[in-house]
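Schema walk-through. Below, the input block comes first and the output block second. Nothing else is stored per chain. Lengths vary across the set, and this one has 141 residues.
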Amino acid sequence: MAEKTEFELVSPERLLVSEPVEMVVVPGSEGDFGALPRHAPMITAVRPGVIDVYQDGKIEERIFIAGGFAEVTETRVTVLAEEAFKLSELDSGMVAARIKAAQEAIQEADSELARNDAQRAMAVAEAMKQALEQRNKATAH
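--- output ---
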C-alpha cells in the first residue's frame, strides 16, 4: 500500500474532508503545490482555486476554495478555507449570481475598504467561474 498523508479541509461552517490521501494539490499564493507524505513543513496563503485530491494515482475529488491558509507537515496537510465547495456542487446559476453581486458591490463601493472587499469577491467569483468551465470541459470529453 502506498504511503499516505492525512488531509484535512476546514471551512468556517464545517470539516469538509479528513482522510488519508496519496497527494493533494493546493492553489498556493505563489502557485500550485503538491503535498506528498514527508513534505517539508511550510505554511502558506491559499488563493481562490481548486484543490485536487489524489488516490490510486488519479484525482478522486476536486474542491473549490475561496482562499485561506495551508499548513503542511511531514504527515499532514491542513487547509483552513474561507469558503469551500465540492466542484460537483457548483453550478452556473450560483456563479452568475456571485459575479452579479460582486459587480454591484464594486459599483456601490463608497470607500477603499468596500472597494477592496468587492474586488476580492469578484476575484473569487471569477476563479469559481474558471473552475466550473474547466469541470464542464473535462466532463464533455
